[in-house]
Amino acid sequence: MPKDHGIGASSKRREDVRFLTGRGRYTDDINLPGQAHACFVRSQVAHGRLNGVNTADAAAMPGVIRIFTAADFEGVGGLPCGWQVTDRHGAPMQEPGHPVLATGKVRHVGDPIALVVAETYDQARDAAEAVVVDIEELEPVLDMKAALADGAPKVHDDLTSNLCYDWGFVEENREAVNKAFEAAHHVTTLDLVNQRLIPNAMEPRVAIGDYNFATDDSTLYTTSQNPHVIRLLMGAFVLGIPEHKLRVVAPDVGGGFGSKIFHYAEEAAVTFAARQLRRPVKWTCTRSESFITDAQGRDHVTKIELALDAEGHFQALRTETYANMGAYLSTFAPSIPTWLHGTLMAGNYKTPLIYVNVKAVFTNTVPVDAYRGAGRPEATFQLERVIDKAAREIGMDPVELRRKNFITQFPYATPVAVEYDTGDYNATMDKLLEIADVAGFEARLAESKARGKLRGLGVNCYIEACGIAPSHLVGQLGARAGLYESATVRVNATGGLVVMTGSHSHGQGHETTFAQVVADMIGLPENMVEIVHGDTANTPMGMGTYGSRSLAVGGSAMVKATNKIIAKARKIAAHLMEASPDDIELKDGRFTVAGTDKSVAWGDVTLAAYVPHNYPLEDLEPGLEETAFYDPNNFTYPAGAYACEVEVDPETGRVTVERFAAADDFGNVVNPMIVDGQVHGGIAQGIGQALLESAAYDEYGQLLTGSYMDYAMPRADDVPFYTVDHSCQTPCTHNPLGVKGCGEAGAIGSPPAVVNAVVDALQRAGHTGVTHIDMPLTPSRVWAAMQG
Amino acid sequence: MYAFDFVRPATLDEAVAALGGEEAQALGGGQTLIPALKQRLAAPATLVSLTGLPELRGVCAADDGTLCVGGATTHAVVAAEAAAHYPALAALAGNIGDPAVRNRGTIGGSVANNDPSACYPAAALGSGATIRTNTRDIAADDYFQGMFTTALEPGEIITEIRFPVPEKAAYVKFEQPASRFALVGVFVAKYADGVRVAVTGASEEGVFRWTEAEAALSSDFGAGAVSGLSVEADMMIGDLHGSPEYRAHLVKVLTGRAVIAAG
Hints:
Chain B: InterPro entries: CO_DH_flav_C (IPR005107), CO_DH_flav_C_dom_sf (IPR036683), Diverse_Substr_Oxidored (IPR051312), FAD-bd_PCMH (IPR016166), FAD-bd_PCMH-like_sf (IPR036318), FAD-bd_PCMH_sub1 (IPR016167), FAD-bd_PCMH_sub2 (IPR016169), Mopterin_DH_FAD-bd (IPR002346). By secondary structure, chain A is of the alpha+beta class. Chain A is built from 19 helices and 28 strands. Chain A has three domains: 16-22 and 484-630, Aldehyde oxidase/xanthine dehydrogenase, molybdopterin binding domain (Aldehyde Oxidoreductase, domain 4), CATH 3.30.365.10; 31-138 and 202-255 and 260-293, Aldehyde oxidase/xanthine dehydrogenase, a/b hammerhead (Aldehyde Oxidoreductase, domain 3); 374-463 and 635-787, 2-Layer Sandwich (Aldehyde Oxidoreductase, domain 4). Chain A is 28% helix and 23% strand. Chain B starts with a strand and ends with a helix.
């Protein structure tokens, strides 16, 4: 019998009432008295020397208040990078400056050059067009391998080359891995591209700077996944505003997928401008602008090799990846192809020797950073593709080959520095084969064939590291931040609770899920718990939401704080009933003296806390409010198995996804309906990457896919009804809820399933030369592959 | 967008007069022009809306058997009202864009714009339609003159498009995955005096007739008639979404499918 409330119940998403009735309050809905409007002058070329910016005519145009150029930002810091990667020789990465407005050079189409502030947006835009920019065009750096060639033009003149770092992991294993390959019975090699994607959150970015000169307080309203992080980065590193004089508010946010983690130039620019002008300054990104300014995702070029013995046991794995950083280092960019990618190369398999090499490269393109999955989709895709290719080469069923190599003993320390606490990969595979009805595939294949269509089945596994992250560990790995989370639980006199969290919800349903957890712990109706997030002024310092961390880390902080509340409330109840706190039991919102019929209600206790007439004031402070910080001991390791069935039109190459099944192990699940939705969205995103999406630049560095006319987002009719299951549950061993995180799984696990299925379809139809097709598998690419 | 004046004349004469003004631009449903204005890619001084002219709206069957569609008739109206007379044309209209596009976009706007990936030019050319303007009648064969290029003179207004109704016809569109415009679209129409095959989306020169297929289908109206033919890739569009060879291949595949769909 499914639960109808609390942990394990599919409670309806309370936030949807406002989202679905147009009552959400997004940043662009905020308009402050006296607000001015901003428009950026942006580079229209990918690479050029910025010889001058003439604002004279523009400044005289109607409504123009002020035009800021890089000169105005002298003395202002650049945008900081939050992670320093050390290369395989022990040297720190090359870390170029990232000025708020382009200085000396422009480095990608969209690079901001000047900020025009005017009374209206249209006036600002008119004036922005009138700003005269003198740029001497330079040869753009676009292809990563060419960028590393001797004599290649440099994106940053002050660096020695376009190489950010050359990372080896685990460097000490390099020789042993090479030797294993020399001795291997069989080696499977695959060259592939994990193409660049554009995040395309439904809500474009918005930033409003506000400044009260009377109190010297600055406020930034922004579309962020982590307002505290933005406050710290912008306050401390860019504008020099102490945190107690800077408030960052991220109200309702319409999707992020990673792209709203980062600190962007526009945030600092409007905050700075507001202080200079003593007026609120608002900037709303147009959709066209978001294509060329939101940090983009993926963009890896990889060669992966898998060594196997005669029985199909994996002996060693070796990869060489070129990872595109774009023109500047976005906030967490260096960590994505390294610590969020290399550490996952073991996958679900007990490969004893692994060596991962990643060369991060600067190019004249939009910066690349975390995008749903962030490094883990890239790891999963190459691993699960090379395993499929290996299975075909050695003539073994791909599921069998995977099972043969599954990790089955936990905890398991991988050769790439992480320790999986729990998992049961055979269980999720068994569940997958059942829910995907793999047994019925042959019949469906015959039916497709009768209609003249090719059909293929793709199966793969995935594992991810979520619940980011143990602070001491990431500190050793180069993170310039801790990755704990925080919660304050405030109980009101009449018993209702307000939970203030450093996590940030931008679609995930935290307001529902978190309330379920806290209400369940006390035994109260969920509607007695309110979740507050998104404002540094009323939430404790927290690191925000990304990396499927909010329930595992933020939820754990909430559990800790709630336990403190319960401990204190128990003491109050004991006083009221003249019993020992040790004898007090809490159930269904009532405190009872064990073994008696003496009890007090939750509300009696909370009222006593705030009206302490009969209260142990000598031992206990009045009030009922507690804060907790939680820093995880380990990552969590959600894992699972996915299956995709496709049809391919042999005449046109068009691929349709006919069936998709996902068997995930997320550990314990708080709200199964929300988890289903997270997986659905992730799979849609993964199918989008597999079949449709690609950020393509031309030879001049102009984005060819700069609008929805050419950038293909998945739509409802591009995806099938999914069969998802999360009944295989091996709870996380090191967080109080036993949860692992579900936000990225779908996007990580699904692209290889789709590509495996298409290759399978073509192989079955006799196109035996087709061992791989690079994503997106557009009709023209699939057709070309069939032509040989 | 830049500032502009907007007029919505009630008569054709007023519209012609308005379009004679400096930097005046006709506006149909705005499905191409409005996005261009928003991107500041166009800067007309005056927009002259043609949607207020009653004589430009509606679908009717003429005595000579042709189907007449007013220039300002929306795709949604054509989808609904042409269905009984010319099902292939109605189906084409019903699959342009999405409901919002179909309820604003007009046939005259589409044919005047002559986007190389638009659907209507294939129907007009494939049907041997007549483009009637405020000054003259233009045969479709003379009207379409290359990508975004037509026989229209400045200020000339499409008032009506007259479609001879074929015995059989079908339009098959293969969608570009992002825009869902035609990557290639083929309109096949069988008339008593022969078959017409018009192709959109594929060519650098805009909509064109595949005369080789027309000849083959005129003597044998079956998918097999085109299976031995091939299309030259020379003048085909090559872009992110498909190579010239791929588009040439699709022309043949879709022509065969259109013949089958026509029945």
